[in-house]
Amino acid sequence: MGHSTFIMADRPKSIALEPRLIEKPWGRTQIPRMFGPTEGQRIGELWFEQPDGHSSPLLVKYIFTSERLSIQVHPDDRQARERGLPAGKSECWYVLDADEGATLGLGLTADLSADEIHSVALDGSIERLMHWRPVAAGDFIYVPAGTIHAIVAGIELLEFQQNSDVTYRLYDYGRPRELHLEEGVAVSLSSYDASSHFRPAGGPVNTVLANTPHFSLVRANSNDAIPVSLSARPRWAMPLHGSVSGDGRSVDAGGCLLVEAGEPLTVSESSVVLIGAEGPLDS
Ligand code: ZN
User: Fold this and answer.
1) What pLDDT digit, counting tens, does each position of 46-100 carry?
2) Fold identical between 68-199 and 207-278?
3) How far is the CA of 114 from the centre of ligand 1 (A)?
4) Which of 26, 44, 239, 242 has the fewest Cβ atoms within 10 angstroms?
5) Active site members
6) CATH 2.60.120.10 applies to domain 207-278
7) What is the pTM of this model?
């Protein structure tokens, strides 16, 4: 796979991406201070986009919830292109905080046909049929395209995803937002492979979290812990604690540094950083 060279030559070799705060009906008026003031708005998402409208294949978001989000699904690349869209959406989540008892919905508890998924979404019984999995800070979850999924209230997570905004809502708990049943059912999979896609908190700090066709994500507390294969690609670096720097720019926890291919980045002492890049680790 070729990797995009989407940082322009006249730009710095690393960029502290500016967060864009997005209001959502399920967002929060209080978010951790490091993300800045909400000014009374219900902030649901923070998007770390590139400046000047440059697009990139991946996107980092933080998500804060005070209510549950819809039960939804995203198409894969092929399905998206058949519908005239540039790319599908696989995503992954790193849970930063979760209320006691919080769960995430991943897949269904029964293997349903497309017709059955359509009818349980329409009558709302899909809520009971979701596989609600308890989550805690430090859990990592890969959500490949086609996974029926839902985020509940009381969750704070970092999402690393294909930069595609195509979401099909299957069920919205009776709220008035539009549903996309035909499109959603057509791309939905009942099953979810938790044994390989859900990685509970704990284990070594330095670890490969995601090694997927679209993106890789590692957690590292030193430069030595970052797989060498990532250094030839643009990298998104998100400190969980401490800071990370590159080309004279530095970001702290809650920020996102985009580092150009081949440009070194430095994990500061006593820091833990998530580092993501396009494509699988060995590509
Ligand atoms: Zn999603």
Assistant:
1) 999 988 778 899 999 999 999 999 999 999 999 999 999 999 999 999 999 999 9
2) yes
3) 19
4) 242
5) 169
6) yes
7) 0.94
**What is the distance in A from the centroid of ligand 1 to the CA of 74?**
6
Ligand 1 centre distance from Cα of residue 206 (Å): 26
Q: Say how many Å lie between the CA of residue 146 and the centre of ligand 1.
A: 10
* pLDDT level of residue 5 (50, 70, 90 thresholds): low
Determine the Cα–Cα distance for residues 149 and 170; give it in Å rounded to an integer.
10
Ligand 1: centre distance to CA 266 (Å)? 31
- Which of 30-34, 122-126, 248-252 is least confident? 30-34
CA–CA separation, 138 and 200 (whole Å): 7
190: Cβ contacts below 8 Å, ≥ 6 apart:
107, 108, 110, 111, 112, 117, 148
Residues in Cβ contact with 127 at an 8 Å cutoff, skipping those fewer than 6 apart: 71, 171, 173
Instruction: For the chain, give every domain's residue range.
Output: 68-199, 207-278
